[in-house]
What does this fold into?
Amino acid sequence: MQEIRIPICSDTDIVAARKLGREMGTKLGFSSSELTLIATAISEIARNMVTYAHDGVISFAAVGTTNKRGLLIVAEDKGPGIADLSLALQDGYSTSKSLGLGLPGAKRLMDEFEIDSKPGVGTVIKMIKWNRRQ
Amino acid sequence: MPVPILKQGALLIATLQDALTDKDWLDFQFELTKLVGVHRSTGVILDLTVLDVLDSFATKSLRTIAEMVKLRGARAIVVGIHPDVAFTMVQLGLTLHGIETGLDLEDGISLMKHPTEFRSH
Ligand SMILES: Nc1ncnc2c1ncn2[C@@H]1O[C@H](COP(=O)(O)OP(=O)(O)O)[C@@H](O)[C@H]1O
Ligand SMILES: [Mg+2]
It folds into this structure.
């Protein structure tokens, strides 16, 4: 399966990104509840891009081997970055009076979650959901 | 896409459509609280049956809507949260706080016939 990239600049792109994630996940054979977990994690990460970094790109790719397949989602932006990552990953921490559950929540919804952020440079989030039904 | 809001007697029934954008959520919030006054509605049912994702933004919007409806003197009941969505919300750490919920539209309508005191929240 080819890598697919989608630019994220507005709230309509957030909806498009989670639809795309669902499509990719369906092709990889994920269950409906796993697809919902994936779509919700995408929604949180994409919304952060629009809110804090103005825009960015999300890419989707199939990873793993024939007996262990997964969906890799990479979200990249050139926004202001996050100064204190451990703080940003705490439940309820928000700089926008929002719920502060996006980053910690997405981490819980996915199987692997990596975040790399430099103030003034941008943020890169890599997350993977593995398909357990194979 | 705007959310259709139907008047049925003293109730307003809002059936959310597939994938609301952030702007749709805000428009919906103001339209609904306005209509509560226009129709002097005593209850509002928010039917989320078709929603396949309820993220933190949508949850916060729902809480705001329910609170605004309450401040306008009406009761709000959320119905139709899909099992997969409920599962995801719990994993994410999202709650609807004190918002009343029902299984589906039918359940919501029958709940509206009973005083709030019948259910503890
Ligand atoms: N892509 C990003 N660029 C810059 N800052 C971000 C980004 N994503 C998240 N943040 C920061 O991390 C905080 C926590 O994010 P999150 O858990 O999604 O909560 P919320 O969005 O509700 O504030 C945000 O308030 C923001 O300060
Ligand atoms: Mg967020």
User: Anything to note?
Assistant: The longest helix of chain A spans residues 32-53.
